[in-house]
Amino acid sequence: MKSHRLPFTPILLLSLLFSFSSLLATKEVNFSMDYGRFRYDTSSVYLEVYYVVYPSDIEFQPSAAGYEASCELDFSLLNIENDSILAHDKIPVKFNKDELSTANEDISTGQMGVVKLVIPRGKYFLRMSSPSDTVKEEISVSPFSSGKIAMSDLQICSNIITGFEDQEHPFYKNTMKVIPNPSGIFGIERPLLYYYLEIYNIKTQNIPGQADLKIQAAIADGDGNIRLKKDYVRTHSNESLVERGMFNVSKLETGLYTFIFAAVDSVENVSVYRRRNFYVHNPNIVVVKPEDELESKFMEHFAVLNEKEVDKMFEQAAYLASDSEKKVYKVLNSLESKKQFLARFWAEREKGNEGWKDLYYQRVDESNQKFSQGGVEGWFTDMGRIYVIYGPPDEYERNPVNPNENPYEIWHYLELEGGVEFDFVDINGFGIFQLVNSTKRGEVSFYQWREQYVLAR
Q1: Residues 6+ positions from 233 with CB-CB distance below 8 Å
Q2: Residue 127's CB: how many other CB atoms inside 10 A?
Q3: Count of alpha carbons within 13 Å of 383, Cβ hemisphere only?
């Protein structure tokens, strides 16, 4: 693994470790990425970046040993504050198998690896890409100070093997083999959800072994209902603990869930918690809910669609999707599972908002008619995004032609948050309007947009 060191933010690149079982020529490479932050020292954090590559879309070629294929992942770590690359490397991935099958490979056959880094305080972009896909994560790094109880990231895993002695293994951690699950998918093929995290800065009492830490681990469904739960007390004499455990999710119906882990220090009476989203795929588990009828209706509608059309529908719906939903959909490996996911996606969003799906895709079509430019579909442009999410504006201000100014438009939504505006400017003069400012919460904000962009000619 190559490391680019900066004089004012030194970084120690510990290792690039990966374990692959098998594959040469590639068509599309489908993969997932996850990460965990753990304590290192007073100025740095130990970062692990997990990844898994799936063989379902990789093209195998004949070889002396049967069939093989390979691809390459590009990994980089970018310091956002000074736009500098702290680490970068090319990661080779290889697969092989005895027989060539036309059936989709199961997601559990994906090949996993881990990148291990020590990085200082700051804000970073993690980026991993293949020839056909890119995954990016923005992360903040703050060393685990000694002042109060703290937790590492909550790692959800496909397995944890205790009493593991091979300290050189990429997944070795505290006498255990902790196997990650970067996809975040459990269920029919992977019914056991394991978890791992570390707790730091626990206050101890004067009598060794008499300090208690109250633990609660729970799994909540999309409606916030606790579906699985365990409570227990950990007696300890050290200032740090390693926590691991397991839930069987084989009886949970298909859907998005949240794993919640909380700890209360009985000495200081302070608490800390972590939460992680994950997805359960159990198509054989049927639980009757009020929205099931709506979900069935969507499934009937999607029944005639091919995989390309279903993928397109979810791509267009991504403005409404959470990061977890995007991550899960990307690694679904069958048309039926994608249809089920999309049906549930829209059924959840039409609770109390009937017709939202049809209205949304109507806006997508209208955006394509109004805003398509230079081979880019209208829904994918800045104007298209705002139009699809919020609908047509109540009022427009347009300044299309002025020799001393760049063309701009101001869209007013009078009923949204008491009245907001979106400001678009054709910065390059090519007819492509970019969103440069808005008074809507969560959108880009730049009050000097007129001076910077409109009067820039």
Answers
A1: 212, 213, 214, 215
A2: 17
A3: 26
> For residue 139, what is the enclosing H or E element?
strand 134-141
What does each C-alpha distance from 450 to 403, 432, 446, 455 come to in angstroms?
A: 15, 17, 9, 6
The full DSSP string for 266-303 is TTTTEEEEEEEEEEEE-TT-----TTHHHHHHHHHHHT
Contact assessment for residue 48 and residue 114, using Cβ atoms and an 8 Å cutoff: yes
Instruction: Name the residue among 106, 81, 87 with its Cα closest to residue 47.
Output: 87
The contacts of residue 450 (CB under 8 Å, 6+ apart) are none
pLDDT tens digit sequence for 121-145? 999 999 999 877 888 889 999 998 7
Cα Rg, the chain, nearest whole Å: 25
Strand partners, 265: 213, 270
Distances (CA, A) of 52 to 36, 118, 295, 336: 15, 21, 31, 22
Q: Which CATH number, 3.90.226.10, 2.10.50.10, 2.60.40.150, 3.30.1050.10, labels domain 1-140?
A: 2.60.40.150
Structure tokens at 338: 């994608």
Whether the Cβ atoms of residue 403 and residue 380 lie closer than 8 Å to each other: no
Q: For residue 158, give the H/E element and its range.
A: strand 155-162
Q: Residue 162, SS3?
A: strand
Give tens-digit pLDDT for 400-456.
777 788 999 999 999 999 999 999 999 887 888 999 999 999 899 998 898 888 886
Q: Domain coordinates of the chain in residue numbers?
A: 1-140, 144-285, 292-354, 394-457
**Residue 168 token pair:** 């050189």
Domain 1-140 matches domain 144-285 at the CATH topology level: yes
CATH 2.60.40.2550 is held by the domain 144-285: yes
